[in-house]
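#struct-help
A.M.: can someone run this one for me? Single chain, 258 residues.
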Amino acid sequence: MTVDGMTVEVIRARRLSGVAHGFLGRRGGLSVGATAGLNVGLGSLDDPAAVAGNRRLAAAAVAPGATLTTLYQVHSADVVTVGAPWAEADRPQADAMVTDRPGVLLGILTADCAPVLFADREAGVVGAAHAGWKGAIGGVTDATIAAMTALGAHRERIVAAIGPCIARASYEVDDGFLRTFAAADPANERFFAPARAGHHQFDLEAYVAHRLAAADLTRIEALGLDTYADEDRFFSFRRATHRAEADYGRQISLIAAG
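D.P.: on it. Structure tokens below:
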């Protein structure tokens, strides 16, 4: 998508065809250095003017004229129902949003965690969730679905797409991490593969898909894109940490009602 002469990559989900949405990475944008590309992270060390410009580019690439609405994300299972957009300075602390208001563009920021976009086309209700491991096991996707149904959506009509996130091959965790998931449900061990001694590879995308299916959603799409491995296309907190870099960028996933 070309916006103001800048080419911004917008990744679409087939399941969400006909709904204004997109999973954006780092391609395009105004930022330079460690956060080069389409960095939309207000908490990064990037030039605030570049971040603001990137956020405008992202919104225009997906839903021109809509008002971008984001959260102060805290790895919770909290959901906000958006009646009207708020100023960036007034962002509530939560990790998911739902709305039925046309012209509102929901935006979730990630840098390895799983962004999940939801839509019930018939009801005109959409949702967006930030599902890191804490939010995923805490039920952020379940809470998003419940908030959508409170606005008139029906589970049997809700479509969900899981965007770019860290893949199992790139996500090494320790024994304590596995025990946390096994304590919640022993069957969760199937989302872990063996790694070096005392460690495992965790499949966040598959776990999120499982939670969506367990919530009675039947139309689920997982894009299978690894943020850690594809440096040219995506930002990654874990990759930046492994390299001891001073900063990292954030990408955005967007969806609008109406």
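A.M.: thanks! The first strand starts at residue 2 and ends at 3.
D.P.: also worth noting: Residues 30 and 36 are 7 Å apart (CA to CA).
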